[in-house]
What we know:
Layout: H1 3-12, E1 18-22, H2 29-39, E2 44-50, H3 51-54, H4 58-68, H5 87-100, E3 108-114, H6 131-141, E4 145-150, H7 153-162, E5 166-170, H8 191-201, H9 205-220, H10 226-233, H11 239-254, H12 258-270, E6 274-275, H13 276-283, H14 287-299, E7 303-306, E8 309-312, H15 315-323, H16 332-346
Parallel strand pairs: 1-4, 1-5, 2-3, 3-4
Antiparallel strand pairs: 6-8, 7-8
Amino acid sequence: MPLIHRVLSVLASPTPGIPLLIGGCSAGRTHALHAVMARLDGDTTPIYLDVERLATTPEQCYRSLLRHVRVAEDAPALPAPASLTSPRDAFDAVLALLTSARAVSGRRFTFLLDEVLDLRTFESFPGLKTLMAETGAALGASANRFVLATRFRQRGTRLAATWPRIAPVMLDDLTITDDGRSTDALAGLDPTEQQQVLALTGGRLGYAVLVGEALRQARRQGIADPVGALTEQMLTGSALERRLRLSYEVRLQRARGYGALRAILDVLAEQQPLTLTHIAQRLHRTPGSTKDYLSWMLDVDLLTVERKRYTVTDPLLRLWIRLNNGADAPTDAQVARETQRFASERLADLPAVAPVTAGRPASSAGSIIEID
């Protein structure tokens, strides 16, 4: 069943469920949420909310929601922000707005909550240690409808097992193409080029959009090929390079042991798969502490383990790490060499591609050494 239709079917069932879109960075979660919002029927008022932007303090989150969500005046009264005396009161008000409010038209809301797991930010405030369980119960009992999304596969799967009415929907590769619009990512490319772009980007919609656009732009200036377009997009400061940097930092910041985790990723960027024992030996750490580090990265989907061997989940992110694990930004020559090596591995079973075309000059950003 096409992805968007699956989500709409869950919402339209006699006992409506709560779809949870689960997909990694650049898998197309936000794109899918907006596609769902555009296809909702007229008996509901859709509201898209980026929880990552709202998750500051419970009080600030509530004030932001009141500015963004127009609530019917004859609906049950919501507390004024000035009347709230604690983070507990503020979060209760947030839940009341999401679960009990009605739109100005009188219709119920459908809230599309992007990065819903960022609600965990509020757990550090007094009285809110159990807020995730409370939120699941409140959303499950609400007459309003909800569509949720998260970039974390492991955490999202656990959430689906504990919250009522949750129906997980996995975004694998370019599964979102059933909405009829994401095919623009590969528009203008011949079938061989499309196949190569998908192989190089691991089928991730966000990556494919950027590489496809770079290929189309390069073609206006002369002969171009997918490997050359990827090389250009791996140069420091390019759109894809910035997106990979964000993916790297966001996941590490959501995990623990930042410095040690970076060291493990550097090891796996050079050689994988590796066992726990081999990783511990290269880090000069005990197997026990290394196992903790690895479990933290599995929790945020940075790593995948199969038969006790660990690999970086996102192949393109692994290339980015290999290029950026030194004190200096990579040179154009290093980017071209490592990208060619990566492409040779990814395209080994596909028709041969043309040689790498020259990328644009790298940005002149200064070298920065981060100390953990």
